[in-house]
Amino acid sequence: MKKACVIGWPVSHSRSPLIHNYWLKKYGLEGLYERREVEPEHLSEFLRNLGANGYVGCNVTIPHKEAALQVIQNIDDIVRRTGSLNTVWVENGQQQATSTDGEGFYRNLLACVPGFSIVGKSVIVLGAGGSAKAIIERLLRAGVGEIAVLNRSAGRVEELKAVFGPQIRTLTPDRFVSESKAASLLVNTTSQGMKGQPPLDIDLSALPPNAVVADLVYVPLETQLLKAAKARGLQVAGGLGMLLHQAVDGFEKWFGLRPEVTNELYDYIARDIVKDAQ
After folding, report:
1. Domain span at residue 106?
2. How do residues 42-93 score in pLDDT, each as one tens digit?
3. Catalytic one among 2, 25, 65, 181?
């Protein structure tokens, strides 16, 4: 029986087992996906012995996404550019790695707003961490015009410029409203607005009527940012959809079948999130 897992420290919050075991059952595949808590000092040993421990692969979550780069040698261009990974699989006895976060975001965006094109458009990204890197990398491959990054630390934005080039620029808080007039997409990659975190206080009044607002937070399912966007009549893309779409490629690599993200799956995971929030 093929087995995969998600590793982190801690990892009890992960909903990846719900997603992958749902697909295994739906498609009648013999397999198992489980959580494995791996302390940082044991990360290298665990990854090097992944196959020996009976796993065909794993997801990597906080705090291991960057540290895992020191262990796994066979990485793709996405990992090289973003500096982190989230999906590992064993191929011909060798560990391979990629990051599916950017692809998951982009597929969810197109699923939520069919026909949406980012080619040549202006985007505002809130935050400059690992998730922002993954999304910026994917938007650049999709042909985005420019990306303005608003972050508390300007130094982090300078790091993004060094990696991704002149299409990235710094956006200061005092310029947000005026510059949002030309934005086709606004993306929140920060934890603000998440349950237990400070709210995201931002003015959406100047966004064009055809702009799209995306939030990576999925607890709660509908953040205040998304509610405010909907109140303005803007189209939105929530964080749960990204979580589901980023899981597709890993499942295919581990279990040999490309699964589908359906409304039924969305509702199944959404119910668990709502139950957990009560």
Report:
1. 102-237
2. 999 999 999 999 999 999 998 999 899 999 989 999 999 999 999 999 998 8
3. 65
